[in-house]
């Protein structure tokens, strides 16, 4: 089984700072980590490999320092790592990113499964995984919390919904985005870390991928970021105390006052 | 301070740190309370290859390094001295096999220990034989292809949970200390059972049990070295393992220091954080300096051992004694900085005091360490 895991390097903080002029992330001084949701994708990929044999290829699109994220995935047990890196890809939105990643996956060749985290902790869009599957024209199952069964080239999985979960069966190759309920990512082994240190990270740039300039980078990104801001924290509501009748009456009055 | 660690050593530290923070710290209080053996953590440590650090590559390890063992033990101990000692005690039980085992013994036992599939234990202490190790009463009598062991060991770390034991017993009582021999025992050998499990003041995640030998038949090929070498095996083993105890003490001290600094910054009294008071600052400064001095001594000693310096008894004893005394002082002061909260079990610091205490006692009390140091000093002067 050949499993491709797409990962993203993100700043290690939930309070991302934004440059107000360029509306992009300020990365300086913030430690970079693998997007926490992608850790579950890596772990699930390695578990599938261990169970069914095969290999895990991990790919990331990002600046040269994203190589560290790929090495960490190799330390956990991924077999091959590819970094998609070119200035031409800078400023990509989710459309251009998923197009670029899908193109790279096509170049990799045959595969059975693509795994992504459900979303990135910095952008929080949850669009890149589904976008890749659309570009590749393969089935997608989002929010997968359990791989129930693998029967030849069919997989049955459980996908989380707000009310519970759905059981979905899909032919392979397919793309899953996974949630944290799916597993507990392992701590790498020392031997894995040593292997990762000297592992070859393949770098593909525009030279190798030869993508249509209209579809990549800032130019290929239909999304226009007008403004990014942290929404104000919700203030504590008002709690009414007293007898039920009285409280109900008061509540109706308040709602009327607020014209709700 | 920069100890100029190699990339590999930095990796070991980073990995052990990760395990300590992500896996051990969240469960340390629970194990302290329940006194259960931390198998889930042992499994994590094993999968991370850390049991291989003190075992030669030829036998499935990563290269028999006392320094690497110390780096890992220190980091694990920062989060829990009890869980860390389960790991370090396996090294203690493994060293005699590395040092004195023949090829067959090494091949048989070391690979599983290197993978952490099994843990080891070392057994010399008896109710009547603590600091005076020559007073041991457990006997081993040769009968054909077997030695038959009778007697009782107590206070054995990993006792009952370990699969492999190195046990010191008297093969010839008339020869005194020269009549002791070392044997490799396996859990489940006929006549080998476990007695009482101790309830302890600290390091409560680790197990401490009695080993009972009742006409226990041990194959003759399980004799380590030769008959009569029991005490040499013990002394050489302790020379190797004492830096590990020192590293455990160092980690406990470092962990307590970090908690104390963090708490001092957070705790507000008289309208400001207590870290702004010089009385607290000076305590923290002394604690940090002592911890760093202990680290320098432990690392230097461990590097000496790895470099193959022949006699390291004095330095090993110094490192163990100093680091454990520092751990005791630093943890007590850390608790003092926590004030009344520090005395309460809801806060993590009192556990550090309890965990630190044993490091002044086991693998030779600090009084015995001082004897070793003084004896060496006098010997050196006589040369």
Residues in helices of chain B, as a percent range? 40-55%
The residue fraction in helices of chain A comes out at: 25-40%
- Count of folded domains of chain B: 3
Largest sheet of chain B: 4 strands, mixed
CATH class of the largest domain in chain B: Mainly Alpha
The CATH superfamily of chain A bears the name HUPs
What is the correct CATH architecture of chain A? 3-Layer(aba) Sandwich
Please tally the helical runs of chain A, counting DSSP H or I stretches of 4 or more residues.
Answer: 7
Q: End-to-end span of chain A in angstroms?
A: 56 Å
Count of individual beta strands of chain A: 13
The CATH homologous superfamily of the largest domain in chain B is termed Butyryl-CoA Dehydrogenase, subunit A, domain 3
| Fold-level CATH name of the largest domain in chain B | Butyryl-CoA Dehydrogenase, subunit A, domain 3
- How do the strands line up in the largest sheet of chain B? 1-4-5-8
Q: Low-confidence spans of chain B: pLDDT under 50, at least 5 residues?
A: none
Structural class of the secondary structure composition of chain A?
Answer: alpha/beta
Biggest sheet layout of chain A: 9 strands, mixed
Determine the CATH topology of chain A: Rossmann fold
Description:
The complex is a heterodimer of chains A (260) and B (383). With 260 residues, chain A is of the alpha/beta class. Chain A is built from seven helices and 13 strands. Chain A has helices spanning 36-52, 67-76, 94-108, 128-136, 190-198, 206-209, 244-257, and strands spanning 2-7, 9-11, 18-19, 24-25, 32-34, 55-61, 80-84, 113-117, 140-151, 154-160, 165-171, 174-178, 201-204. In chain A, the strands form three sheets. In chain A, strands 11-10-9-12-8-1-6-7-13 form a nine-stranded mixed beta sheet. A two-stranded antiparallel sheet of chain A has the order 2-5. In chain A, 37% of the residues are buried. The model of chain A has no long low-confidence stretch (mean pLDDT 91). With 383 residues, chain B is an alpha+beta fold. Helix content of chain B is 53%, strand content 15%. Chain B is built from eleven helices and ten strands. In chain B, strand 2 (139-143) and strand 3 form a beta hairpin. At the A-B interface, helix 5 of A face helix 1 of B.
